[in-house]
User: Fold this.
Amino acid sequence: MGAGGLVGTTGLRVLGLELHPPGRELLVAFAGCLVRLPVSRCARHGGCRRSCLAARDPYCVWLPPRGCVPFSEDLPSGFEQDVEGSPGTTGTCQDTPAAGDSDGDLAHGQ
Assistant:
């Protein structure tokens, strides 16, 4: 059963949580299923610099001209990241809709 099948289900008890850094995901164990959740959603911010930086997501960086992308050790110079919440990096871009996720999950209300 995928994470989408859990929506509206009550009485589920989390049996275990484990961070899986190589896959950049959180594993959540329930009786009878294991759910994999990404630890970041960089694509959600798309081409909105303000939204990407305001998310304060340690796994996402702003990289012109590609937009909000997952952090990796081999990124070219010139990327921006704000994990401390500097002034001026709050809010969202009203004229640019956020990119949707193709793999909805309960934790992100999809």
Q: What stands out?
A: Residues 49-54 form the longest helix (6 residues). The chain has a mean pLDDT of 77.
